[in-house]
Amino acid sequence: MDLKKRQSLLAYVNTLESNERNKLYKRANELRKRHMAHSTKPRERRGGFDDEGDSVVTVRRTPPLEEFVLKILEQEEAEPAVEPGITLRGVIVAVSKGRAEVWVDGETLDCVLAPDIMKRQQTDVTVGDDVIVHRGEATSTVRQVLPRRTALSRPDPDSGVQRAIVANVDVVVIVVSVGTPPLHPRIVDRFLIAVERGGAKPVLAVNKLDLLEGPELAEELAKIKPYEKIGVPIVRCSAQAGSGVDQLRMLLHGKTGVFVGHSGVGKSSLLNALRPELQLKTGGVSDGYGRGRHTTTSSSMLDLGDGTRLIDTPGVRAFGLWKIRREELPWYFPEFETVQCKFRDCAHLREPGCAVREAVDRGELSPIRYETYLGLLDSVSE
């Protein structure tokens, strides 16, 4: 067994509850006893008399208990143990290290992840995943993660691998606010691309309309006009005043949705407005910077009844996109198709006679959206 696999299995042991870990070590100890009883390996001489007449004693080398723990886990990984119990299908509603909470037939099960799944937890397990659970007498275990219908993903900032934020959602509600924190169209643009790539449908919720009025409000709302033109459903709302909540509820009825956006835009507040009894913790905006405080620290799924399930996610400072090829980037800006460029493969960068750039100059296409496009074009794969 190589070092990487040893470390992975030992990390799994550390996720077990004390009772489960004690049972595992008890099994390992029994296995070690049987091994020593039938071992044919030579003994180490530590007693009796050697060739020179010195006293020595002969003892058998005893492998450390940890080796038998790893042997059991390795075998179970290859051939999962058939523990008395039943096999069920459920959906993950929360994830922690080596574990997951799974809804099964109206009940929430606290499950451990099977060793092979735990090793891929960062990329293969997220809230919304449909899973197969083995419910034993003492422990419930996630044995299989089923294929996803949709996913919202981003590059992990630490490892650089693609990481799913949520899975199997129908609607992604991109929440922005006016005033504090200010409305940033570029993060909306990035979310829209990620939503389309993942197969879900977007909704843009513009929150905190009660905080501004007159010219200031009009200036902020002007930022969302490009999204109206490309057909993104927009809900103008205020979680505090309750406006727009019914429209949002209607768009989400009977669906599985997720709320995403910057910290402090009011994702949890909107969920509370949709279902007050949830009583989710909410926070304000930090002084001086107009940035939100993280009040939601991990993603979790909430059941609103009537077939509606919503996922609250932690706020983000920035949102990266996973490996977009240069030639596919224009597909995610559908307004570009409303003008006819001279060249079919036009990158809309410096080409002479580019109709997209001319439309931007005339104010027919959003300059902010075009700036987002240029920024992404500069960073995407060839």
In words, what does this structure look like?
The protein has 382 residues and is α/β, with parallel strands linked by helices. It folds into four domains: 3-78, no CATH class; 85-145, OB fold (Dihydrolipoamide Acetyltransferase, E2P) (Beta Barrel), CATH 2.40.50.140; 153-312, Rossmann fold (3-Layer(aba) Sandwich), CATH 3.40.50; 329-377, Ribonucleotide Reductase Protein R1, domain 1 (Orthogonal Bundle). Helices cover 31% and strands 23% of the residues. It is built from twelve helices and 15 strands. It has helices spanning 3-15, 18-38, 65-78, 115-118, 121-124, 185-198, 214-221, 225-229, 245-252, 267-274, 355-361, 367-377; strands spanning 44-45, 58-59, 85-96, 99-104, 107-113, 130-136, 140-145, 151-155, 162-167, 171-177, 201-207, 234-236, 256-260, 300-305, 308-312. The protein starts with a helix and ends in a 5-residue tail after the last helix. Mean pLDDT is 83; it is low at 285-294.
Q: Based on DSSP secondary structure assignment, what is the total number of beta strands? A: 15
CATH-defined architecture of the largest domain = 3-Layer(aba) Sandwich
Overall structural domain count: 4
Strand content is 15-25%
Q: Structural class of the helices, strands and pairings?
A: alpha/beta
Compute the average pLDDT: 83
| Oligomer class | single chain
Largest sheet: 6 strands, mixed
Q: H/E series, N to C?
A: HHEEHEEEHHEEEEEHEHHEHEHEEHH
Q: Count of DSSP helices?
A: 12
Give the overall silhouette: elongated
Strand line-up across the major sheet: 12-11-10-13-15-14
Helix content: 25-40%
Kindly provide the radius of gyration, computed on alpha-carbon positions and rounded to a whole number of angstroms: 28 Å
Question: In CATH, what is the homologous superfamily of the largest domain?
Answer: P-loop containing nucleotide triphosphate hydrolases
What is the CATH class designation of the largest domain? Alpha Beta
Reported by name, the CATH topology of the largest domain is Rossmann fold
Distance between the termini: 39 Å
Low-confidence stretches: 285-294
